[in-house]
Amino acid sequence: MRILHTADIHLGHSLNGWSREAEHRIWFQRLADAIEQHEVDALLIAGDVFDGLNPSGESQRLLYDGLVEFRSRRPHLTTVMIAGNHDPAYRLEAPGALMAGIDAHVLGTVRRRADEIEFDRHMVPLRCSAGEIRAWAVAIPFLRPADLPGLSFADAESEGSPIIRAAAEFHEAMADAARATCGELPLIAMGHLHCAGARESEGAERRIPIGGEHAVPVSVFPECFAYVALGHLHGPQSLDGGRIRYPGSCFPLSASEIGHRHGATLVEIGEDGITHHHIEIERPAAFHRISDIEPADLAGAIEALDLDPDLPRDLQPFVYVTLKAMGPAAVVLQNAENLLANHPVRPASIRVIREEIEAEDGNQLPGTLAEVSPESLFLPAFLQANQIEAEDRHILAFRDAANRSE
Questions:
Q1: Which of 83, 294, 318, 345 has the highest CB neighbour count under 10 A?
Q2: What share of residues in the chain are helix, strand, coil (percent, to 5)?
Q3: Which residues lie below 8 Å from residue 259, measured CB to CB, with a gap of 6+?
Q4: CA distance 40 to 32
Q5: φ and ψ at residue 287, rounded to 5 degrees
């Protein structure tokens, strides 16, 4: 039996104002190709399906069209999807009755009846192509403090974090219920959280503290879970000897993800147990870095990228530019933006870096507030920000602004 594990799709995401819709459409097609090529029996989507709590109609259409396409490629495919911290949990669950028609199961929230967790509703049987149940998914959406039974911060004598204790008790209860329901078949847990020891992508993932804790140890997942399919962290990586796995995001969502091998994790259940390996899925759009060059060299660096002028605008490469400059930052940035606008690229970021010029003694601030004037603060601040002395036009503009505010 083969299971494909993915997460962190972030439908509706934009980068520096550029929509990723066209990229997501292509990515869904390539995911469908992978499902067919690898003869996948079950698809696990471990949260952050959407990028925000109010997804557009087009984002929702992309998801549902994709799920139908996956099922058409593999008519017996079972899909299990959980909500992440970015997702609108109840909206994700809303079409559940319709999704059941394509054997797609959605868990946006922890299901309860009369304050008791409905454990059985979190258990989804996973069948092979012959229709035989070969494993069970234990679908656990992004957890909030209210989802953790018995959570209390009042017991000052107990050691350790009450959040970690409560999370461990929650997963232990899930495991016990699953074992009672599923017998000795492999249990595949799903979750959306940060496990301690895993690598974050700077600027990409939002830390999601629960009662002061943003990461839980791998020990919260009982050993009876043969594989733990997680979402939230955007870099593909494994923990606990490979038993716990993040497949990574679908394609780069920030500069820190450019070096990632984006794709999904193919999990195989055989007579010898569970194995998995990462399969790469080609990015719909390229990403480039142009770093630490002079503004005069930017045009040549862009030309060296060998860009395709016939690419649609929404599939053109993203480019991150870092310029070394001594002139006013606003002017350098505007010139760079104008230059990039004439090439088939999408600017993801343009930054100016430079060595700081130390203020001379004559520009040091006076010792007391009584001796400070607005202009005496403006002049050294302008020098520090722009690395040039303020000209008469700058000083006159400042005085005009100061007079208008009085």
A1: 83
A2: 35, 25, 40
A3: none
A4: 10
A5: -130, 135
pLDDT tens track for 13-32? 999 999 999 999 999 999 99
* Other CB atoms within 10 A of residue 89 CB: 21
Q: How confident is the model at residue 359 (pLDDT cuts 50, 70, 90)?
A: very low
Look at 52-56, 287-291, 308-312, 379-383 and tell me which has the smallest mean pLDDT: 379-383
Q: Could you report the per-residue pLDDT of 50-62, keeping only the tens digit for each?
A: 999 999 999 999 9
Query: Kind of pairing, strands 18-19 and 287-293?
Result: unpaired
Question: Does 201 score more than 80 pLDDT?
Answer: no
**CA-based Rg of the chain, rounded to a whole angstrom?**
26
H-helix or E-strand spanning residue 239: strand 237-239
Domains present along the chain, CATH in parentheses: 2-280 (3.60.21.10), 287-353 (3.30.160), 361-405 (no CATH)
pLDDT confidence of residue 155: 54
Question: For residue 151, which phi and psi values (nearest 5 degrees)?
Answer: -65, 125
Q: Are 75 and 102 in contact (CB under 8 A)?
A: no
Among 201, 257, 225, 191, smallest CA distance to 48 is for 191
Q: What is the DSSP string of 241-307?
A: GGTEEE---SS-SSGGGTTS--EEEEEEEETTEEEEEEEE---SS-EEEEEEE-GGGHHHHHHTT--
Angle between helices 329-340 and 374-386 (to 10 degrees): 40
Query: How far is 350 from 268, CA to CA, in rounded Å?
Result: 43
Q: Give residue 172's identity as a one-letter amino acid code.
A: E
Query: Looking up tokens 């989804």, which residue turns up?
Result: 124
Give φ, ψ of 171 to 5 degrees.
-70, -30
